[in-house]
Amino acid sequence: MTELEEGTRQALENQPHANEVFAHPLPFNVIPHIDAFQSNGYTKEEMKVVWETQKIFGEKDLSCSCTAVRIPTKRAHSEAITIETEEEVTPEAATELLKAAPGVQVVDNPAEKQRLAPQSSPQSRSSQEALGWLKVQSVSVREAGHVDTEVHSSQQLLQDVEAVSSGW
């Protein structure tokens, strides 16, 4: 935190600042990778997310992928999560389900012009996970990366719901 605070002050005062703890300067930056790269091309931090997800769901073979970047803030983590379901789920139904989940706070108002979203600053003072911006993906996870332009029936596609999460 000291490197972030001092580096931010120096950057705002247009002074040079050296980073000692991290490989990249923290102020006003996005850190492209966290920890060492693993043999599968993912970073250790990305694999920790995969392993933790599998542990939470009690499914060692749960298919999960993660891209992790660090955005220097004083406290909190943020994630974009894609949930693939076997049956169609609307964002409204997913929102109601998540509102009932313990430890979850839904921060979303899709009908408003200035749409709310989870933010790290307010969440750093909360023990709840904030979720927002639930939406149906425009591309199926199973279709992503495919060049095939064939039209698929709704039974062949799985519904994807994406949520933005912020918590600590």
Automatic annotation (TrEMBL):
Pfam families: Semialdhyde_dhC (PF02774). GO terms for molecular function: oxidoreductase activity, acting on the aldehyde or oxo group of donors, NAD or NADP as acceptor; protein dimerization activity. GO terms for biological process: amino acid biosynthetic process. InterPro entries: Semialdhyde_DH_dimer_dom (IPR012280). It comes from the Eukaryota. Residues 1-120 form the Semialdehyde dehydrogenase dimerisation domain. This is Asd protein. The gene is asd.
